[in-house]
Structure formats: C-alpha cells, structure tokens
Amino acid sequence: MVTRWAFFITLSLLNLLVVTTVVMWSLWLPTVGWSGDGSDSATRGNLWALCLPKQSRQHNGEFYKTWEEAGDQTYHPFQTRVRVVLWSDALWRRTGLAKNRNRTWYKLCPRRPACEFTREHMWVSYADAVVFHLPTLPTNYTPELMPRKRKVHQKWVLFSMESPVVTRGKNMASYGGVFNWTMTYRGDSDVLTSYGSRSLLYNSLPALPANPGKPPRNFAREKDRLAVWFVSNCYAHLTRHHYAKELRKHIKVDVFGRCGKSVCAEDRGYRSTCFKKTIKRYKFYLAFESYKCREYITEKFWRNALENEVVPVVLGAPKEDYIRFAPPGSFIHVDDFKSPKDLALYLKRLAKNDKEYNRYFRWRSMQFRKNTTLDKGRWCNLCDKLLQTCPQERKVYADIYRWWKGKEGEEYCERTLLPEDIPKPHFDLSIHFS
Ligand SMILES: *[C@@H]1O[C@H](CO)[C@@H](O)[C@H](O)[C@H]1NC(C)=O
Ligand SMILES: *[C@@H]1O[C@H](CO)[C@@H](O)[C@H](O)[C@H]1NC(C)=O
Ligand SMILES: *[C@@H]1O[C@H](CO)[C@@H](O)[C@H](O)[C@H]1NC(C)=O
Description:
By secondary structure, the chain is an alpha/beta fold.
C-alpha cells in the first residue's frame, strides 16, 4: 500500500515537472526562439532580440550616444510581451481607434500580438516604450508633464510626422538628453513612420502581372482632365503658391480645397469615393509640399496621387530623395524644368501622347525587390524594433535639436518666409485660387 502511494506521488510530481517545463518553455520560446529576419515566419508574433558583442554598440555620435548596460537585471527571458504607452492624445487619434473604446490594451500591429499599446498613463511604469508627439509637446521640456519614473530599459520615443518648420516653436535644445529613440518620416529615425513607401504602396495596389519595362495597361484612356491641385494651407508665402500661380498661366490646373473651389463637400475625407473618383479623372496631380524639407514626402504623393493612379508632379524634397523612396520613374519633379512654363509645355505634350504618359506606370509591372528593412507601417515598425533590440542596449539623443533641424549650414528644410517674419501690421496673408 505504502509503495503504491509513493509511486503515485512520484508520478504526480514527475507530471507536474513535465507540465511546468512545457509551460515555461512555451513562454520562453516566443522571446528567444525564432530569428528575426522581419519575415512572417515568426508566426508566434515575436522576434528574436539580437545581442551583438558589447564593443560594437558603444558609440559616441554627433547627436546621440549608444552603450550597453552591463548586468541589467530588469529583463528576463520569460518576457513575452512588449508594452507601449502612447503618452500624447494626438498619437491616440492617429491610431484610428474611436475615443470611447473600453479596453486598456490594443494590438495596433495584429501580426505582432506580443506588442500591446495603451494610452492610459497609469501603465507607464510597466511600459517598454513611451511615445511622445513632438508637435503637441510643451515648448520647453517640462519634467512634471512627463512620466515620473522611468524603467532602466524603457525607451522614450519622440514621434513626429511634421517637418522641423512646423515644430520650429519648440525649444528642442531643452529636450536634449531626454529621448532614446526617434520616430519620424526621416529614414535616419530609429523607427520609420513614413507617409508611404514602396512596400506599403505595392501592398495597397492590386497586383499586376510582372512584365518588366512595359506599362500594364493604358492609364491615359480613363482620364478626361488635365491637372488637379488640392490645397488647404493657404498661407500666401509658400514657395509652391508662386510656382503654381506661374504654372496656371500656361496650363489649366483645377484647384480644389480650402484655397480653391470646393468639391466633395459633403464627404471631405481624402479616402472618400468622391475624392478618389475626382482625382482619377486627371492625368496629373500636383503633389506640392508646403515646405521644402529633405525626405519630407507626404500623403499628397503616396495616397492622393500614386494610390489613385495619377502621375504626381512634385515640388518639395530634392529629386534624389524621391528617387530613393518612390517607385522608379513614377513622378515628374519640377526641378527638372527651367521654369513653370517649361513644365507646362511638357505636361501638355505628355497629355497628348498616351504611350509617353504610360511610361510613368511601368513600375506597376515591375517585381518589387524583397528587402528586410521593409516598411510594415508605423506601429509594426515600432513593435519589431522593440522586439529586436537587445534589452541591454542604451541610446540617448544628447543633441536632439541638431538631429532634427540638421547641422548648421546644412539644415534639412529650406528657409521659408514665415508669418512671424513679416512686419506687422500685415494684411491678409492667405491666397485663394479661383
Ligand atoms: C466594450 O466595447 C466592445 C466593442 O468595442 C463592446 O462589444 C462591449 O460591449 C463593450 N463593453 C462594455 C462593458 O462597455
Ligand atoms: C533596403 O532598403 C534600405 C532602406 O531603403 C536600403 O538602405 C538598402 O540598401 C536596401 N537593401 C537592398 C538589398 O536593397
Ligand atoms: C534613455 O535615456 C535616459 C536619459 O538619458 C537614460 O538614462 C537611459 O539609460 C536610456 N534608456 C535606454 C533604454 O536607452
């Protein structure tokens, strides 16, 4: 009888051991088990943090430094989740989630269920990252408005979709030494939050048969109008307004938006059917950015023009930036023309020649080269970076002011005459195109 009980108890203990091991293993596996090449093979929704040898990560850069925190005990291999607090309400609105949702944690990147987001500040002490929205941060760094305590491996992430011109009112120097990561449209950010990219674009458009070098169909046939410009920042002294005014002397450009005529009044969202249908009727879309800044290529280019299969005429970032980011041969850059008049002549000629016009769509039938630095969308990019970063890694932007603005004499944004530069009393600073 005694031996039978002993046998039974031993068996139970053994069983418990096996179950515990399996549970621990399954918790552990997702964190360390699968290599992170960024591909979807990581079906468990996790990536593998890659820890390189110490020396390679010590770095004293111009704007930031990186180092390794030896013996950091805060991370353990059973950690299976990363949590992110979106500190600024403006960021929460960007997630597209309704205000009155009742859950605390959201998976903004469904393919990485291990990565969860909240906007509730009370969770900040648990967070692996806290994201701050630059355009709505206080002018000066104000510690009382930031989280009180900060876990040693917690990353403070500076987020901006706006250009340095828009955030010029911020005393960026006062934020030196505060942020660990940057998350902007610029390619040298730690996390990319672009307005668009080749990978996102190819994903959103219907696939066309691969047929390198040939336009997949006649895009010109669907179009009965020439050029369109939607413009809503009517501040008169933007470079693009002078350019557009000149251009319109030589070619018909329909102007919609706050500074032009109204169209799609009842449903003004840029994803609305009315908006898309309107744009698709045109051969050219003026994707003129408000500010001329390096790499600043916005939804005007990606969503409004390319997604609607209209050829963008671009003014803004230098041509080399468009070449680096845009599909090859997909746009017309104003810098290629001596004057707005020359551009107008070219557009008119192109509009009459379907064969030439369709050359701007050859990229649609090219195979997109696989690239592990693909843009997966902003929240997924953040999740992947968090899951892939070695937990002992440290980084801080000591000179965030110069990182953001650019080195002296090599600023990222071209100077613009801004309202504050114009002596008062100033008259109407807005422009209207009829
Ligand atoms: C919470 O929201 C979900 C959907 O957003 C809804 O189905 C559910 O009933 C809500 N629960 C409460 C307690 O309000
Ligand atoms: C992948 O993309 C990055 C960023 O766009 C680029 O720097 C890199 O050269 C690309 N790699 C390949 C193999 O195309
Ligand atoms: C983030 O920056 C702070 C402030 O300089 C620094 O103390 C901390 O170690 C950094 N954390 C990480 C994870 O890089």
